Amino acid sequence: MSVVDTAIARLQAIALSCTGVTIKAAPITPPEDASILPLAIAHIMSGIGQADNATTARLLLTVNVDFHFSSLTLRSAYQQIDAIIPEYLQRLAGDPTLAGAVETINFPVNVRVQPATWNDVVTEMVTFEVPLKFLETPIT
User: Contact, 124 vs 71, CB < 8 A?
Assistant: First the structure.
């Protein structure tokens, strides 16, 4: 497993360890209905790479961690959202190297809340945009 995969897996594990709301891992296939919600999925969104010198390369990736909540009852969805936002940020702050997988999380972490549709399932989605810093040795 690459360091990037390890970091993404750690972000997902942190999402699943939240206790204010019981979060499930996103299924392999997109859900057919809202019964699987709430769920979380972590994925690379964007990034840049640069060579600092002949011995150090820097990879800066933004990994999105998306939490999907059932929008069937908006009041319930927003109660869960209101609980998950501070808890997930606190958990990230408590593990800024993601158990050694990254050099650091480059705080601040952006948070967005918006409606989303995933395989025809309408959800309320919270997205954490987590900027990660990796230092690598160039291949010569």
Answer: yes
pTM above 0.85, yes or no: yes
42-94 per-position pLDDT tens digit: 999 999 998 878 888 889 999 999 999 998 889 999 999 999 999 999 999 99
Q: Does residue 108 contact residue 88 with C-beta atoms inside 8 Å? A: no
Q: How distant is the alpha carbon of residue 97 from its chain centre?
A: 14
Q: Is 88 exposed, middle or buried (0-12, 13-18, 19+ CB in 10 A)?
A: buried
Per residue in 89-98, pLDDT (tens digit) is 999 999 999 9
Domains of the chain: 3-136 (3.30.2000.10)
Query: Minimal CA–CA distance to 79: which of 127, 19, 21?
Result: 21
> 3-state SS string over 5-60?
HHHHHHHHHHHHCCCCCCCEECCCCCCCCHHHCCEEEEEEEEEEEEECCCCCEEEE
Q: How far is it, in rounded angstroms, from Cα 129 to Cα 39?
A: 17
| Residues 123/68, Cβ–Cβ less than 8 Å | yes
